[in-house]
């Protein structure tokens, strides 16, 4: 398993997919360390240790490269979510960027309108409340629902706003008739653009079907996620 993981890391490394290769290097190193502890063959131990040293050195170089890209404002990672695939909950996409210094979040998404979209936003807010970040302010810019759904949308957002207030989080809500872009920004410099916004999950088969509650198990629509790092996060 360790050999297969580091092989994948090398492939990703050669393809300049550095963030993904770093994760694979780290997982592969852990597996090889377990192999060292589990074998009594000294020759194998020596071989594994040599490879571990090589992979650790390369992983450190990649870390420095990623950090430099971040400092230069050139970091870009792309994730392609294929139709009907699962395993892409909000935690999976956002958690690694929600460091402890994150205190302010901006969400631009024109489709926080219908009931299921309000629940999507609520789940996103729940993730922020759980931490490890210390979010104090969330800014939402969306568009009004059309027709009879408008009052339901406003009431739902106000209820989320009140609930967040109980956790010491302020939700600022603004509406725009011209908003088209979908992006999420954190005040530690990370920016995430999702082609479909927060609404990239498919409708569950039923209220008691697997994936209804756990978004990691919910099939997704095809979409693209672009992650950037900027020195300064612009404000709305």
Automatic annotation (TrEMBL):
InterPro entries xref list: MIT_dom (IPR007330), MIT_dom_sf (IPR036181), MIT_domain_contain_protein1 (IPR052817), MITD1_C (IPR032341), MITD1_C_sf (IPR038113), MITD1_N (IPR045331)
CDD domains: MIT_1 (cd02683), MIT_C (cd02685)
SMART domains, A to Z: MIT
Pfam assignment, any one: MIT
Domain spans labelled MIT: 1-71
PANTHER family, per the entry: MIT DOMAIN-CONTAINING PROTEIN 1 (PTHR21222:SF1)
Entry protein name: MITD1 protein
Source species: Upupa epops (Eurasian hoopoe)
Gene: Mitd1
